[in-house]
Structures are given as C-alpha cells and as structure tokens.
Specification:
Blueprint lengths: L28 E2 L13 E3 L5 E3 L3 E13 L2 E6 L10 E14 L2 E5 L2 H14 L6 E7 L2 H8 L9 E4 L2 E6 L4 E5 H5 L3 H6 L27 H25 L9 H15 L7 H12 L6 H10 L5 E3 L7 E10 L2 H8 L1 E3 L4 E2 L5 H10 L1 E13 L12 E5 L2 E3 L2 E13 H10 E2 L2 E10 L1 E3 L2 H17 L6 H16 L9 E5 L2 E5 L3 H10 L7 H22 L3 E5 L2 E4 L6 H22 L21 E14 L2 E6 L4 E5 L4 H15 L3 H4 L4 E3 L7 E6 L3 E6 L5 E6 L2 E6 L2 E3 L3 H14 L5 E2 L2
Parallel strand pairs: 1-7, 3-8, 8-11, 13-36
Antiparallel strand pairs: 2-3, 4-5, 4-6, 6-7, 9-10, 10-11, 12-25, 13-26, 13-27, 14-22, 15-21, 16-19, 16-20, 16-21, 17-19, 18-19, 23-24, 25-26, 27-28, 28-29, 30-35, 31-34, 32-33
Helix pairs in contact: 6-12, 6-13, 9-15, 11-15, 12-13
C-alpha cells in the first residue's frame, strides 16, 4: 500500500448543489455496497497547523469471538479447556461483524475486506491524505487496533502506553481516535449521558459465549445491538461537535477539555486575540516557577503521593453496625482555592538547628528526604507511611501496605506529611537530607477563577432540566483540574514500528528545558504535589479526631461509628474552612459567593465542607477498595476494585439465600466469585496470523483469517488477604480483646 499523494485542489471543491443531510440517528442498516449514498459533501475545517479535518461524526466498532483450538488439530475448538490440558490448546480470536457509522447512518459488515473497501472509498471520495483527514472514533481503540494494525500502513502513532493508542493515522488519510479516552465512560454510560441525540447501548442482547464467524446468521436483536454501538459513539461525537463548534475542537482525552479551558482563562481570558498584557503577566509568573534541576524533578516525583485509601485494622474483617459516611465537597478543588502553594523557584537549604527546621516548615512549602531509625506507630487505628514510597526499609511491620514500625526507613515527604507523621509515630533518630523550600502563595487568580466557575456550574446546574450536558462537563472538568497539574513532565515515548511496540527513554534535561521555557505553560508540577498533601492532611484531621470510631477512608471520605460524638468536630472544621475561604477570596478580590453557590433546591454548598454522604445499617471492609454495605432500606452495595457491582451483588444475595447464611459471612477472606459474575476479562494479545475453520453455535462452518487479534476470556475473582495482613489483624485484636464476627455498637 503506497502513501497517497496530495490531490489537485480542483478535485477538492464540494458540489455546491449537494447539501449534507442533517444529523439524524437512523435505525436503518445500510449494506457495504450502499456506502456511496452516505457520503455527502461534508465540509472540511482548517486548523492553525494548516491541516484539514472532515467535519462529520463517524464511528467504528467490531464484534469478536474468542475460543481455544487444539494444537495440531485446529478444527477441534472449545470455549475453555480443562486445566490439566491447558498447554495443549491455543488461544484464538476472530472478528465476525462490524458497524461503521457516518453522520448518524450505519453500515453493518462482516469481513475485514468489506471494511477496507469502505476506507478506500472514504479516502478517494474526500481526497484524503496526511494533511487532509477524516476522524473515525472507536471506543477502546486499542482493542480494534490490535485486530487491524497489520491491514493498514501507518504514519507515526500517538500513544501514552504500549497498546493504548490515542490516535493513529493511516496513509489513506483516515485517523482513528479513542472515544473512551475522550469520555472516560464505558459505552453504556456514554449512552446514558446523551442529551440531544438519545440512544442507549443495548445491554445483554449479545451472548458472547456463543461461537460466531462471518457466515453466522445474525438475528434482528443481535443486529440492533451491533447497530447501537455505532449510534451511541456517533451521537456523542455529534453532540460535542455542536457544543464546541466543529470536530477540530475535540481534544484527544477528557482532560484536554479542561486543559484548554483553563489555559484560555489564564493566558488569554478566553481568547487568543486580545489582552497581550495578561498573557505576559501570567507567563512571567510561570517563568518564576521553574524546576531547576533533574534532581529537583526526581525529588518532586518521589514526594508526590495520591489520595489516602485504607481500612482501620480495628474493624477490617468485622461487621460494624450503625456506620455513617462523610465526605468533603470537592476536596481537591477546595484545597486549590484555600491553600498556598509553591510560587517561586525551589532553594536547597543547609539546616543548622531544629528551631530553623521547624521555622521553615511553618513558613514555606518544604520538600525533603527523611531517614528514620526505630520508627514506631503511636496511633493504633491507622498508619500513614506507605511502604511503596520507602526507599530504605528494614525489619518492617506493615498494616496492609502501611508502615507500623521499622528499624530503618527513608522516604521523601512534604511538610504536610511530616506534620501527620510527627503526630502518629515516634522514633529514636531522624536525619533530614535534600531540604528544599519554596515560597508559598495562593494559586494565580485567573486559575482560581476558572476552578470556581466549574464548581459553580457543577453546583447550580445539578438536576436542572435541559442542562444535563453542561452539568456533566462541569463536574468532569472540575475533577480534572487537579489531574492535569501532575501530568508527568518527562515520559518515555511510545512508538509502533514494523508491527511492534517500543519505548524510548526520555531525556529529562531536554524535557525540563522545554517545560521551563514554554510560553503556553499555565501549570506547575509542584502545585499538584501539594494538592494531595493538603487533602491528606484534611482527611487525617478526621481520622485523628474519630480515633477508634474510624472504620475506613478513601481519598476524601470517612466511614465512622458513633457519629454524634464527632458532630462538633465537623462543625468546627467547616467553620475554619470558611475562614480560610474568606481569606483566599479577599486576597483574590473575588466575591465570597463563588465558594458557596446554591443548588436548584436552594441549598448552599460550601466548597471543602465535610458533608453527610450516607448511613449504613451494617458495614464490612477487608482492606482498601474492598467493602460491603447494607443500606437503611436493607439493600446491599459492594465496592471491590475491578469487580462489577451489578453482577456480583445479586450473585452473593442468591448464594446467601441458597446457603441460608448472612450475606456478610460470604464477604470474607477467600471469597470466590465465578467468571460470569465478575465483569472482569483477561486480554491476551495475539501478534501472529491465524487461519482456519470454525464451527459456530448453529453448526455452520466458516473460514477465518486474522493477521493479529485479542483473545477475551471471563475470569473469576478470588479475594485474598495477605498472610502479613492477617497476622497483623490477629495481633491488633488480641491487644484490644476484639472478639467475634460482629460488633454491637
């Protein structure tokens, strides 16, 4: 396949008498040979890079069958071989149907040859090449890419991880992009969040356990399922085209929306064409906030930690009655408004005394490496230091990944981390190294205005009829304000060449130089390090207050017993938070109302407040991201990382009924959930060609040939607790004389 050359401009002029049909979702299924009837004269939009994009919503999706075939006798197939014969079988996967959509109309085809016909038709009809492109969106592009990667000739591929391309351009001028990374939702939830073009993903209409090939007859129900996958993606892309103006305004990822919005607010006040003084003032601030060395950058990366998620060892594995949940109202955005952050170049300091050390901790943002000897926890309900963040660690005792004690320990922390460690540990020796200080100040006013605008939209638009789209975007963009601030400055380059993925290590010095000198930079990596540090400090104020009533925490929320004992703390905390918000608003000369907007029901939602988040009759946790709840209405909810709540909870309810046991008895160490109830799949990438004949579920034979593919297989889930964690829990219960499976409060 040769690279297409640029077409003559005479051939690029659309027919003025051919007006593209308005976007409407059609339930009619077109054939591949009807492709020409769908290709209207859609307009091209030019970008500032002198590139053109066809302004039309388009989508592609495949359906595949996964199976095993017997090595040496490929006509013998099965869904899954016996475990003792596993090595005698080979994993295979084949495409058996696809949907291609353009402007609300869909073609359902069966073979790769048919899809290639469509792609060549598109390329010829619209005179596509590298600078004149058509975008086709695919939900989970990495999956389809693995199937068709050897059927196209590729230009350089844009990817953030191996096998996860964000965008890939063929020499035909067709660019595939990932709509999952654009939305952050699975296809079912994309459908639920559509507002103008209503169509929902069909759920449960296609039995994936049945073998199918390209000759397998498809029922009307199955065709409708395949069709809707294309319609949902197209409807979302069309809504975004209409909301933003044209297809060139759509970013590659969900974070791209808020990044563009905040950049324009900070540098251009919403426009590239005016207020150069504003641009240079903000750029001057960024110039003063540089990372001056590779070592400083590495230290900042070591010092960055995410949210604190953990279970109190006092209650892990126990059923606790009468548990209340509180969470912060937009925790990360709140600290971004009310706290002060590194606002200048870091400086290494040679400490001369403990007094000087404490003075710096109070007056500056501080980052340092710290070494402890004979460190031991003094706070029984919870432990702060993460084992994964320790560089030196000897003779440690751990609480599910958190340090209880160690003879030697070194890590990198901020002053906020130190304040918590000082309150909850004791030690015989501490050495501070690489002590770096940053002058601290509130975040720039324009960035603060951008965050507050999103918070106000999220609050005031919730449950407002006709504003669902605006509310969803404000909510997602608000959550992304923090994430984009800690985007890694120097990352490996992922490339795809000659059918293989590869990785090129970055040059940190070059990347830092570009970062420091960038005129479009409006964020500082340092800010993100302290956002999570402040948020952890706030969360730990609640953990320390609740003490032995604290059961579980997750980033911005606490689950606690005896809530009445702690209502005064919640009131006092919220009053202090409001004082800090008032100080920040006064500094920025912004109205206080921006941090306390009203919902449509008239309720004031103050940014950063502790807020009631629910009550449970019974609650049980088995560690981080593993808990089971019985609500006040006796309904059950479960959170286990990677397991489908919709499938697993009904399974456990039915199993408890059959065994005539309390459902909480099933949620325990060694809990086993069969493959069909987990919602988890194992992905096996097959990077070599396969061909053969498959007998489908109707008994019909069909030939198949794939250049590469992905085998999907449902997998079971076995919840296990580590031996060290079990031993820790036994020890803590002996100390506290905790008996039995259930705690009466």
């Amino acid at each position: 396949m040769k690279k297409k050359s640029k077409k003559s401009s005479n051939n690029e002029t659309p027919n003025p008498n051919s007006i593209p049909r308005a976007f409407t979702l059609s339930k009619y299924i077109y054939r591949v040979d009807e492709i020409d009837s769908l290709l209207d004269d859609f307009p091209f939009i030019k970008t500032n890079k002198k590139r053109e994009y066809l302004n039309v919503a388009s989508a592609f999706d495949i359906e595949s069958t996964s199976f095993y075939r017997l090595i040496g006798n490929p006509s013998m197939t099965c869904k899954k071989p016996p475990e003792d014969e596993y090595d005698d079988w080979e994993k295979c996967a084949i495409e058996y149907a696809f949907v291609f959509g353009i402007n609300g109309r869909c073609i359902i085809g069966r073979t790769w040859e048919e899809f290639m016909i469509i792609c060549h038709k598109l390329s010829d009809r619209y005179h596509l090449f590298s600078e004149r492109r058509m975008i086709i969106y695919i939900h989970n592009l990495g999956f389809e890419f693995q199937f068709f990667k050897d059927r196209f000739e590729w230009m350089p591929i844009f990817a953030e991880e191996e096998r996860v391309p964000l965008a890939c351009l063929t020499t035909l001028g067709i660019e595939f992009r990932d709509s999952y990374l654009l939305t952050g939702y699975n296809l079912e939830n994309v459908g639920k969040n559509l507002h103008k073009y209503k169509v929902e993903k069909a759920v449960g209409d296609l039995d994936y356990s049945l073998f199918r090939h390209t000759k397998t007859p498809l029922t009307n129900k199955e065709l409708g399922y395949i069709l809707n996958d294309g319609l949902v993606v197209m409807a979302h892309i069309q809504e975004e085209i209409e909301r933003l103006g044209d297809i060139t305004k759509l970013p590659f990822t969900k974070t791209g929306y808020v990044r563009k919005y905040c950049r324009n607010m900070c540098l251009y006040d919403g426009s590239h064409r005016h207020n150069l003084n504003k641009f240079y003032r903000y750029h001057e601030k960024m110039t003063s906030c540089q990372i001056t060395s590779v070592e400083e950058y590495k230290q900042l990366k070591r010092g960055f930690q995410g949210g604190f998620t953990h279970a109190s060892g006092l209650y892990s594995g126990q059923v606790v009655k009468d548990v209340t949940s509180y969470d912060f109202t937009s925790s990360y955005p709140a600290v971004m408004i009310m706290e002060r952050f590194p606002m200048g170049t870091g400086k290494l300091v040679q400490l001369k005394s403990t007094e000087e050390f404490n003075k710096y901790l109070e007056l500056y943002c501080c980052l340092f490496d710290v070494y402890f000897e004979n460190i031991e926890s003094t706070f029984l309900p919870e432990h702060y230091i993460s084992k994964s963040k320790c560089e030196i660690l000897e003779n440690e005792s751990t609480d599910n990944g958190r340090i209880v004690s160690a003879s030697k320990l070194s890590t990198t922390i901020t002053e906020q981390d130190y304040f918590i460690i000082k309150k909850t540990y004791k030690w015989t020796k501490m050495i501070v190294k690489q002590f770096r200080i940053y002058p601290k100040q509130y975040l720039p006013r324009d960035f603060v205005r951008a965050i507050l605008k999103l918070y106000n939209d999220k609050t005031t638009l919730k449950n407002v009829a006709g504003k669902e789209a605006e509310y969803n975007h404000a909510k997602e963009d608000l959550n992304s304000c923090f994430g984009m601030s800690v985007t890694d400055i120097s990352r490996p380059d992922i490339y795809y060449e000659d059918g293989k993925w590869g990785l090129t290590q970055p040059n940190i010095e070059d990347d830092l130089r570009r970062y420091n000198l960038s005129k479009r930079r409006f964020l500082c990596y340092q800010w993100g390090v302290w956002v999570t540090a402040y948020a952890r400090r706030n969360l730990w104020s609640g953990i320390l207050e609740c003490g032995t009533d604290y059961c579980y925490s997750d980033t911005d929320s606490l689950k606690i017993r005896n809530v009445d004992r702690h209502l005064q703390y919640i009131k006092d905390y919220n009053e202090y938070a409001l004082i800090k918000l008032k100080d920040a608003m006064e500094f920025h000369q912004l109205p206080l109302e921006l941090v306390m907007p009203k919902t449509i029901e008239g309720k004031i939602k103050v940014l950063g407040y502790w807020d009631f988040d629910g009550h449970y009759n019974r609650f049980k946790t088995l560690g981080a991201k593993r808990y089971f709840m019985e609500l006040d209405d006796s309904k059950h909810k479960m959170t286990v990382s990677g397991v489908s709540k919709k499938k697993a909870v009904p399974y456990l309810e039915q199993l408890a009924k059959e065994k005539k046991v309390d459902i909480f008895e099933l949620f325990n160490d060694n809990l086993f959930i069969p493959p069909e109830y987990t919602g988890k799949n194992i992905h096996t990438y097959i990077d070599y060609p396969i061909k053969g004949v498959l007998r489908d579920y109707t008994g019909k034979l069909g030939e198949y040939e794939e250049y590469s593919s992905v085998h999907l297989e449902e997998t079971s889930y076995n919840l296990t607790m580590t031996t060290s964690y079990i031993e820790y829990l036994k020890g803590i219960r002996e100390i506290n004389n905790i008996q039995g499976e259930e705690l009466e409060i």
